[in-house]
Each structure stands twice: as structure tokens, then as C-alpha cells.
Amino acid sequence: MGSQSQPLHFVMIPLMCPGHIIPMIDMAKLLAQHHVIVTIVITPRNTVRFGAAINRAIESGLPIRLLQLRFPSAEAGLPEGCESVDELPSYNLNVNFMSATRMLQEPVEKFLGETSPAPSCILSDKHVFWTAKTAERFQIPWIIFDGMSCFTQLCTEMLSASKVHETVSESELFVVPGLPDRIEFTRAQLPGLFNPGSIPSSVNIIREQIRATEVGAYGVVINSFEELEKSYVDEYKKLRRDKVWCVGPLSLCNKDSLDKAQRGNSATNDQDRCLSWLDIQKPGSVIYACLGSLSSLSRGQLIELALGLEASGNPFVWAVRSRSKQEEIERWIVEDGYEERIRGRGLLIRGWAPQVLILSHFAIGGFLTHCGWNSTIEGICAGVPLITWPLFAEQFFNEKLVVQVAGTGVSVGSKIAVQLGEEEKAGVNVKRDDVKSAIKCIMSVEEEGENRRRNARELAEKAAKAVEDGGSSFLNMTLLVEDIMKQTNDQRLRS
What we know:
The structure is a single chain. By secondary structure, the protein is an alpha/beta fold. It has helices spanning about 20-35, 45-60, 95-100, 105-115, 130-135, 150-160, 200-215, 230-240, 255-260, 270-280, 300-310, 325-335, 340, 355-360, 375-380, 395-405, 425, 430-440, 445-465, 470-495, and strands spanning about 10-15, 35-40, 65-70, 120-125, 140-145, 175, 185, 220, 245, 285-290, 315-320, 345-350, 365-370, 385-390, 410. Helix 5 links the parallel strand 4 (about 120-125) and strand 5 (about 140-145). The two termini are about 15 Å apart. The strands form three sheets. The chain has a seven-stranded parallel beta sheet with strand order 3-2-1-4-5-8-9, with helices on both faces. Strands 12-11-10-13-14-15 form a six-stranded parallel beta sheet, sandwiched between helices.
């Protein structure tokens, strides 16, 4: 029995991007709370950006380690110091970024061969697909950490198998076959995986490699909870030989205000100003608007958002963030007198916003979101209805889950997925009146609005229970650890 006393050691390898790193850090904390040694592979600049949250966890006594590796930016043709997807000056450099990520394989394997205790498994982002070969080389399980819901996974699988989207025009609605609910999309709303002509061939090749590799994973860890999408969890498990562990919402591992504030980048100086402003607002009266760290809407589209928020008549907090249009929108804000006009009723945050902290504030009554999965599930945890404005990737899938399945959201009316780097060509997809109408709808005191708020509150309660001792996600985390323990012991007996 002596071999069983050796602790498990999970090596976690995220894609270097805030939306992928942050939930991985949360996952590391939860694994460590289950007495698993965790090593997080990270780069120097990302250590600076996200180190506060990790260091607090380490200082609390959790067995978390950092493997800091130099990111080969220059060797891959990237600007020196560019170590994260959200820092890329151009979408066209995504292929270079993936090349740099692949160069981490050699130093990671050197570490795996030398570290003690020996690694029990690799838990990696599916985009870091070379880790499949590494896990095979070290004869340990390779588990995918997937930042999407089971609903999205199932939509993806059903579309890939049926190819129903290939039989319709771009704007024609079609039903995704094989789902528990009747779910409709147009082809224009689908991720680039299903619209290969809309993205560069070099990116398509990488996506095909990821898709081909992930099929061979030992299992999948999902940042969701069974009570949110039970029928979709059950169906997805059938496709993955039951090796699916829903362990979320991961953001709920951050219990106190400092953990919530430090989750992600260090917050800007606007944080205290924002929270003080929220403190004097009426409960449930404020709209929080944030369209994610990767969004780069056109100048015209950002202006329509701004004017829609203003026209709604509701108090609001807007996290003004645009990868490529920040200077342009800031110039418009000054020239138009926008910030002066909304003073007292609206608040602008520049840079990184402590989203979990803001969403948990009593004053927030609605969340206008791009439907990235992290933001979606953070909104669900906060118990606030969502105004959905999907932009790209799987975000239209997330919108359907929120609006149609969960009944906690209202669509702003976005009709097309805009590929990263193509935002300027897309122009204005959503008008100010669309924004105003969606806000009015979400804040309505009529029966439909009250039902959405009740659904949101009930779902938040279920999310909180899921991660507590005895909850579904807590149990799934325990089952994951037990599964890898069995695999580790079986491997020791064989060797």
C-alpha cells in the first residue's frame, strides 16, 4: 500500500490568454484543496499579470507550484515580450503564437522527467494540443481542460457529424439535430470551425489538428455544473465514455473580496471609484456592460453601444476595452462630450475590470455580455439576467443556452459572428435602439422580466450548492481525483 501514499501531481498547461489562464488558476486551487500537488506552467509576463492570485493561494498553504518558462516570442516572429493572445498586435499573428506555444514542449518535457513527485497526469487547454504526445511519452493520462459548456460541446459534435449547416444559405435558420431541445442557428452565427472560408487556411489547419487530437483525450474537465445543463451533460458523457467532469463554476472558489478583485489582471485605479459609485446606487438598478478582453469592435459599433447605454435611461458601468480602437473611442468620448453627459448616471472603466467583484454587487441588475463562457458563467453565479451580444467563436451557442434553455437572458439581436481581425469590415451589426430595447426588456417589471430574474436567482443558488461539500461539482472533482489515483496506481503495478 506504500505506493498509494505518494501524492498525486497534476501538471496544468493553459493557453496563454486571460480567459484560459484565469479558470485554470481557479481549477488549480480546487485540486490543491483536494490534496493534489499542482504545477502550473506559465510565462514571466503572465506571472506578473496573474501572480497575485496564485501567490495568495500558495501562501495559504495550498500545494501549488509554478513552472515559469521563457516564452519564445522573438523566435516565433512575435514582438518581444508578447506572451498572451490578447497582446497580439494583429490576428494574423495567431499562427506565430501557436508556434511559440509549441516551442514550450521541450522545456516542459525536461521538467516532467526531473520533477518529484512524478507527474500523475497532464491537464491542458485543448489548444495546447502537443501535450497529447507528451502525455503519451510519459505514459500518463492527458485530460483536456475545456473552457466551454457541455451544451456547446454537444452542438459542435452534432454539427460535425450531421453537416446540416452545409445545406443552407448563410442567413437561413436550421435546427441542430440530436439535441434535447429545438435549437436553431444560421450558418453566419457559427464558429469559424464551421465556416472555414471565413478564416485563414493556416488557422484552419491548426483548428483541424486540435479537433483531431482532442478525440484521443482520456477525459474532459468542464467549467460548468450539472444543474445548469443536465440533459446536455448526460448526452455529452455518452460521447466521451463517461469521462466528463463538470467541476464549476470555478470562479466560486474565490470567496473573499480580495480574491475576487485579484482574479485576473491587477485591477485598474478605477476599481475603488467603481465600487464606491455602485454603493450609492439602488439595488438591482445598474447595467454592467463588458464585451471581453479579445473584442475589437469597429469605432462605429462602439459608439452605437455607448449611445444605446445612454438612451436606456438606466445607470450603467461600461468597461471600455478595445484591442485596436481604444484611442479612437477615447477621442470620440472627449469630442462628443459623452462622459460629461452621462456623469452621475454612467461610469466608464478603462482597462481590466474586477468583473466577479462588480457582478456580485447588490446594485447590479443586468449584465450586457459578449457571451464568452467565463463571463457567461460568472453572470450566472451572480444571479443577474444577461443581455447577450455574442461576437465570435462559440458565443452564439452560449447565448442559446442562456436565453432559450436557462431562461435568464435577452438577446440584443446580433445576427452574425465576426471573426477576430474582421471587425472593421463587419461595421455596425447592432444599433443603439437594439441596445436600448434589450436593456428595457431585461429591467422590465412585467411578468416576463420577473420570471427571468427569478430564474437567474434560482440558478445562482444551484451554482453555489454545486461547489459545496456534497454538491455535484464537488463530487465530480472528487471522482476526477479518484480516477487519476486509480490510473496512477495501475500504472505503478504494471511497471
